[in-house]
User: What shape does this take?
Amino acid sequence: MNNNWKKLFFISFVFYHSNIFAGGFLLWEQNGAGVGDYHAGSAVDASDASTEYYNPAGLPYIRNKQFVASLVPVIADVNFNGAIAVSTVNNNTAQPLNDEQAGGMSLIPNLHYTQPLTPRLSFGLGMNVPYGLETNYSTETFIRYAATQTSLQTIDIDPTLGYRITDDFSLGGGLDAVYANAIFDQYAGYSLLSNADTLSDNRLHSWGWGYHVGGLYQITPKSRVGLTYHSKIVEHMKGTSKFSGKLANGGTGGTQTSNNLSANLYLPPNTTLSGLYDVNDQWRLLASATYTQWSYIKSLLLQGMAVIDVQSLDPINNGEVFIQEDFRNTWNVAVGTEYKTSPTTTLRTGLGYDQSPVRSPTLRYIQTPDADRYALAVGGQFKPNKKFVFDLGWTHLFIIKAPINSSQTVGVNPENPSPESETVNVQGDVISQADVFGLQFTWNID
Assistant: This one.
């Protein structure tokens, strides 16, 4: 695929910039309707074509061709207060920082399509954004030596099939082709030279491959359960590292470039169990529990960076950043309800809890200040006719304060820092909250 085409396609489809609304970097918002009940019942609902992602076994429940387009705006408030010390700046003296902002507005788009092939077999296709994170800190304050822009953006293209084996039981599965793009930026400084700030800009991309499978069982006419599994995906990322400013090229300035930047990124597997119960013709109860195996992620190692020896200023194009993570496995749980107030209108609400994979303040980094969160959601649906359906939703995320007490080293061997390396120590707290809005349009084509 032509690189320019890939960039254009990627920019046009993915344009969000904060992960504070998702535990780790897994995103739940693969449709707009589910924002109204915090995606309770996601693996069992099968009410629209987004089931091709959440549980492809639900595809046979949709008896007509259907197209779903969703947009999920997110407004996040991310605030850091604390201190940062850099080994090469101000004699490693900690500099206090207050009210450093890294939030903003984000947009997550999703597209889904389904088409029955036979009375029992259905095809689905989606373009989703299953993983993502980004924080943007100021380039004007001392925080720039710890982080400026950190980003992971993905697109998942997933053809799926669902087959109804019996009237009560169906299975489904699909392939996942995930394109990932990552940015890791920060500034380097050097007290012995004036105006020495130099930007380290590191960009990587890759394709990764995986699958998802699911099953759906109708226990009674009023109740059913669903189970789905999304596999682990490994992104073998390659890219370019640029070191631009006075310290580049042995202190002569300009831009020092390495085209050998690489990193391996693991996108973790997860399993979701969902249940649904129709109390009566108007009232429905839903619940979900998702177990994500973050423990596959032990560390992140960026290799082949353009850096310098901080003692001799000699240029080095095999620099590294090592980030110890030791993620833990996590649970996300959600309960919700739907109530039909009329044949055309449905109201929703939901509650949820999302556990962070970060184990402790020493393993939490300012680039991705993740923490546990609680969710409160409300939403609704309007169905003016059989062709078109409109959904709206809102979720507020109450995010627990995230203490940080961690260090990060850039050098030739950052796991064993030497005097030639630069080390950044961060202590403080991140206080965050977020509002997630869901917009969805469903078109029943025939």
Q: What stands out?
A: The chain has one domain: 3-444. Residues 127 and 157 are 5 Å apart (CA to CA).
